[in-house]
Amino acid sequence: MRIEILTVCPELLESPLSFSIVKRARDKGLVEINVINLHDFASDKYKSVDDYAFGGGAGMVMMIEPVYKAIEKLRAERVYDEIIYTSPEGQMFDQKMANRLSLKENIIILAGHYKGIDQRIRDHLITMEISAGDFVLSGGELPAAMITDAIVRLIPGVLGDEQSALSDSFQDDLLAPPVYTRPAEFRGWKVPDVLLSGHAAEIEKWRHEQAEERTRRLRPGLSK
Q1: Domain with 173 in it: what CATH number?
Q2: Global pTM?
Q3: Quick one: CA dihedral 24, 30, 34, 35, positive or negative?
């Protein structure tokens, strides 16, 4: 899989994409992630990527030309399944979307910034808009990193135990059940006896019941 992230602040993505599971996937050659600086595609000596909005108003707007040049350069090299824009107005990102995107081969993610991007980018270049939630951030770099992480961990071979991803929260519209580890008792707080029983069927039954109870209590909307 190949993921290209277009951004005006590449430094914001260095750390999230250089540690833990994403780093492991990159080191194993299971995913190629390229962070592309849109300033490199600016046409003036100041490397400008933003300008004032036509019609006035507060805030700056990402210009169409640097984004167009970057995307055209990438598309000249290969076909991309999706060109994603991170936007508070997009479709809410969830596990089902992560599952679908993990099956793609090539993805471009445009991290929004400033007041927004020239509407013509959205009209003519973007194929999918994704929101991280009903809130506004300074830029789309953190959502881009979040989306990338969620996708990459689903690629076969990335996780040490591939069954782990299948038991994550939201995979079956349920939250994950509680988990425990050693010691079996700490300050009088005990691990449920069923988890120490060695009875696989009873343990699985308990976990499913706990997942259902947790979902009803904490996220009732998921079970509808």
Answers
A1: 1.10.1270.20
A2: 0.88
A3: negative
